[in-house]
Amino acid sequence: HYLGHVISKEGIAVDPSKIVAITEWPAPKNVHEVRSFMGLAGYYRKFVKDFSKVAAPITSLQKKDKKFIWNDKCEAAFKSLKDQLTSAPILAVPDPNGSFTVVTDASGEGLGGVLLQNDQVIAYESRKLKLHELNYAPHDLELAAIVHALQVWRHYLLGKPFELKTDHLGLKYIFTQPNLNARQRRWLEFLSQYDFDISYIKGKENRVADALSRRRHISALITLRTQFKDEVKSASESDAYFQQVKAALAAEPNDE
């Protein structure tokens, strides 16, 4: 495995386990869930051709006094939007030498985050709150979202500077706050391994991470589901490092 991809003798492919957070996003059951999903999808509308037309069956469900009926047109629009959220140009292959941005959020339901590079998504992350986390104060939930995101994306972030964005203003000053409890001190010790700057963003600008934190039945992360697999495979054939890895795999096919 390398940067969320599987390298084998056949070439480079995306790890299937890393694309389920969006592809298995459950169909909304009410207007609240429609707004949450459309908040995420709408954030990337500039990348989706005819976004308003594609999303129309779903957005119409938000009209006042309209009965909520999820029909075949809604399902088709939902599938189309999920497909585009999990493919280029919204998602991109990470550049190991480029800089990253991490955006996180938390709700009373779960933790969410998105890893960006040059304003393109590298990975989505979301998970449901654990039982003991249900009692956390909002400040600790937001901090837990940061810790979780950095744990998941450690292989991208450790050892290089990156930007961290949160809509919880207090976290901007977390390293200078007195009277921390044992859990907070433990988390700060973990965060001290990383080189990052924290910046505050308004909640309305944090729609993607917010939606991921509120998604029903949150359970997994997602990285690139590429529509240009053939191009990646073709490029890998001319890459010297990849050819060395491929040769080693061919020579020792049973070596894990």
Automatic annotation (TrEMBL):
Xref: Pfam families: RT_RNaseH
GO MF annotation, one: endonuclease activity
CDD domains cross-referenced by the UniProt entry: RNase_HI_RT_Ty3 (cd09274)
Sequence ranges assigned to domain Reverse transcriptase RNase H-like in this UniProt record: 95-194
Keywords: Endonuclease, Hydrolase, Nuclease, Nucleotidyltransferase, RNA-directed DNA polymerase, Transferase
InterPro entries for this protein: DNA/RNA_pol_sf (IPR043502), Retrovirus_Pol_polyprotein (IPR050951), Rev_trsase/Diguanyl_cyclase (IPR043128), RT_RNaseH (IPR041373)
Name of the molecule in the record: Reverse transcriptase RNase H-like domain-containing protein
Gene source species: Taxus chinensis (Chinese yew)
Upper lineage: Eukaryota, Viridiplantae, Streptophyta, Embryophyta, Tracheophyta
